[in-house]
């Protein structure tokens, strides 16, 4: 078994994830895994970084596929006995002009952004070693969507005692409410992406709380963040930040020094803790 520290970035064949891998290759003292759901897109991305003289490794990972997540888990367990840095970056967004029915957009978006990210965490968080760092890439869209939720939903999403099961129930209810055409009546905002990222931010708050309760001597720091508005296939060419600039806050959180006792359980933007 290797004792080299290991970092994994989900959805890193392009965009912000690719830039996070590039920065970690420069700064992380260990093995860095670029992962992609499509192995050929992944290998092509690996080749690009190798051409820059960087040393990077590849593993397949489709966060929508439980078997793929388990394969990565088993690989990390066997080769490294765990992992040190996990960046949950993989995500999707329908384009503004997409004509797919809202209920379809809700189901598909939540499936990857919330349920997929949660499934990765369920399998990989128990493997995270002492002094490990976990970064869940959320979005400012989560805060904006929160502000458009009913008062009752806002209270639940801001609660310091909400459980993961309760959050899953709420995310499931959102999808069901869109199918029944009652989501607005039920207090939800009109944004599937925004609700999926509320899920990611609140999940991060819950996970951090659990780590503090159950593994408090392990000094693991886990946060959600927004990378900013970044020029990628998702956000388009008009966004002000380059992907490398978008990687800055996630990489800062992934590399918090071992003597840091925070941030933890926070939503961070521009390397600054935001109120939720
Ligand atoms: P992007 O260029 O579209 O890249 C998204 C990445 O996620 C791609 O590598 C994609 O792989 C991967 N992915 C999607 N579904 C996946 C799955 N089921 N399993 C594994 N990988 C999957 O988007 P981006 O702008 O870099 O976004 C990265 C993260 O930042 C997302 O979570 C996004 O919500 C968040 N974010 C972005 C912005 C922005 O302005 N760009 C702002 C706030 C938050 P494929 O190539 O196979 O599709």
Automatic annotation (TrEMBL):
<keyword id="KW-0560">Oxidoreductase</keyword>
<keyword id="KW-0521">NADP</keyword>
<dbReference type="InterPro" id="IPR045313">
    <property type="entry name" value="CBR1-like"/>
</dbReference>
<dbReference type="GO" id="GO:0005737">
    <property type="term" value="C:cytoplasm"/>
</dbReference>
<keyword id="KW-0597">Phosphoprotein</keyword>
<comment type="similarity">
    <text>Belongs to the short-chain dehydrogenases/reductases (SDR) family.</text>
</comment>
<dbReference type="InterPro" id="IPR002347">
    <property type="entry name" value="SDR_fam"/>
</dbReference>
<dbReference type="InterPro" id="IPR036291">
    <property type="entry name" value="NAD(P)-bd_dom_sf"/>
</dbReference>
<dbReference type="InterPro" id="IPR020904">
    <property type="entry name" value="Sc_DH/Rdtase_CS"/>
</dbReference>
<keyword id="KW-0963">Cytoplasm</keyword>
<protein>
    <recommendedName>
        <fullName>carbonyl reductase (NADPH)</fullName>
        <ecNumber>1.1.1.184</ecNumber>
    </recommendedName>
</protein>
<dbReference type="Pfam" id="PF00106">
    <property type="entry name" value="adh_short"/>
</dbReference>
<dbReference type="GO" id="GO:0004090">
    <property type="term" value="F:carbonyl reductase (NADPH) activity"/>
</dbReference>
